[in-house]
Every structure is written in C-alpha cells, then in structure tokens.
Design brief:
The protein is an alpha+beta fold. The protein has 2 domains: about 90 residues, lambda repressor-like DNA-binding domains (434 Repressor (Amino-terminal Domain)), CATH 1.10.260; about 170 residues, Beta-Lactamase (2-Layer Sandwich), CATH 3.30.450.180. The chain contains 14 helices and 5 strands. The longest helix has 18 residues. It starts with a helix and ends in a 15-residue tail after the last helix.
C-alpha cells in the first residue's frame, strides 16, 4: 500500500469533481470548487473520519469493496480506478457496470458475422450481445437478470439450461464451466462479485460444489459442442473464442462442423426468430 501516493491521489480527485457532477446543488458561498470530504463520505457510504485518515496517509488498508465505493463516488475512469486499486495494494477487479457493456469493436464484428452465430460474453459468461443468427440458434441470451445472467448459474440450477445438450455431454460441459470460473476467480482474486457468485452456486447445487472442490482450472478457447436445437434437431458446432487483452470480454463464434449442421443452420435462417421457453438458454458454448 502506497499511503502517501494514495492520499495525494484521493485529495486531487476530490478537488477535481464539481458538486453538480454528482448531483449536489451548488452553493455560491463554497470556497473550493471540488467536493468536501463529508460529501465524498456520503456518496461512498463511509465515515468522514476514514476519508480524513485516507487523505492524510494514516488509514488502514482499505478493502476492495470500499475502494469500489470511492471509485464510484469520485467518478473515476477505468484507468483511474485501476490506479486507485494499485496504490492501495490490491489487484484491480473489473468495474461491473463497464464490464457489462459489450465493446463497440466486438459489436461491429457481430454485424460482420451476421450469417454465423456469434456472441460477446463477459468473463463470467454473461451474454452481452448477440447477432441475429445466434438468436436463431439459441434464443435471446441477453434477457436474463440477477445470477441467471451467468451461464454457469443457469447450468447448475435450471434443468432447461441443460436440455439442449446431449446427456452424455453434460458432465464434461459442467466441468468446463466450473474450470473456466476457477480461472476467472484466480485472475479476479478477492473480487466480491466472483466470490458471491461462487458462494451462491455452492449453496444451490451439489454438482457445482463437487466440481468446484475438485479445483480444476482451464480457460476454454476452442471446443466442439453438440446442440439439440428445439426446431431443427442435433447440430455439431465448432466454437472459437477470441479474448480481449484484459480478458474481460470475449467474442464467441460458432461454425457448423459438418454438412448436416450447415443445412440445419440454413433451415433456421429460413424459419426465422421464434420465442424460446422462459428457462431455455443453454446453447451458449460457455
């Protein structure tokens, strides 16, 4: 923890934020243009005394949760947020709000791949964007909320998520999902978002708990997956994953592995979009 540098950074960022930027009404009698310490404390839901000690370099090491609250209160950019974490001696965790917005370049690639199923995913397996062909194949996977946003959570808590995978493939697929989550948990050590998801899964599923305790780790970059598509039947698809440099998002592209899969994908394009059952959404390769 670099206490003096952390204190200086927090003081300067507080001074650079106008009250109006955070919804605080201006006052002509204010002597300084920036925020007061008590206003930062209110916005971050921490004590004024702790803000004072942080800015004077006298504080204990702040937690990841507290740093996230300060980053939001001070409207830090991604780079500034990462710098804040480094000064406090923590590895930066992805900003949840930013991580859930598909990168513009990846979305443009979805458009270019319009005839091929393609998705943008977060590192936790949430589908952030899909092209039309992906929705024909798997339904709208962006519609979920809460923990069900994450494919690994649906897989272990909702039978409908496993219904589009052949029974003989389900154990392997479950192991891959858990091993990938293990890798994310290692990269984002101490991140409350990841830790909370793991704990809720351990409580909800004996199968997840068994696989998690096996401590297998593997980042999936390529795979071959058999999909039981509700309207056209069995399809064997090759899955390729392109990961962003920070490993926060990935572009997943699914291509037919044989002539039969190509014909059935073409048939799906002819049939057009159809609503999927509420619990469906297990055909993502994550």
């Amino acid at each position: 923890m670099q206490r003096d540098q952390l204190a200086d950074f927090l003081r300067r960022r507080r001074a650079a934020i106008a009250p109006a930027e955070v919804g605080i009404a201006g006052n002509p009698r204010r002597r300084a243009a920036g925020l007061r310490r008590e206003e930062v404390a209110m916005l971050a839901d921490i004590s004024v005394d702790y803000v004072v000690r942080l800015e004077q370099g006298r504080s204990s090491r702040p937690s990841v949760q507290l740093l996230g609250a300060l980053a939001r209160a001070l409207r830090l950019s991604d780079d500034e947020r990462a710098h804040l974490f480094h000064l406090a001696g923590h590895r930066p965790a992805p900003a949840e709000g930013v991580a859930r917005l598909a990168r513009a370049g990846l979305v443009r690639m979805l458009d270019l791949l319009d005839g091929t199923p393609a998705l943008v995913l977060s590192d936790l397996g949430e589908v952030l964007a899909q092209n039309r062909t992906s929705k024909l194949l798997a339904g709208d996977l962006t519609r979920f909320s809460g923990d069900r946003r994450h494919m690994v959570y649906r897989w272990f808590t909702d039978p409908a998520a496993r219904a589009t995978s052949p029974p003989e493939d389900r154990e392997r697929h479950g192991r891959q999902l858990v091993a990938d989550l293990r890798a994310v948990a290692g990269r984002r050590s101490g991140d409350p978002v990841v830790m909370g998801l793991v704990e809720r899964l351990r409580a909800a599923s004996d199968d997840f708990r068994r696989l998690w305790d096996a401590h297998e780790v593997a980042v999936r970059r390529a795979d071959r997956k058999t999909i039981l598509q509700p309207r056209v039947g069995r399809m064997v698809m090759d899955c390729e994953t392109l990961v962003t440099p920070d490993q926060g998002q990935s572009l997943l592209v699914l291509t037919p592995a044989d002539a039969e899969a190509r014909e059935r994908l073409e048939l799906l394009r002819v049939l057009g979009v159809e609503e999927f059952p509420a619990g469906a959404g297990g055909t993502s390769a994550r």
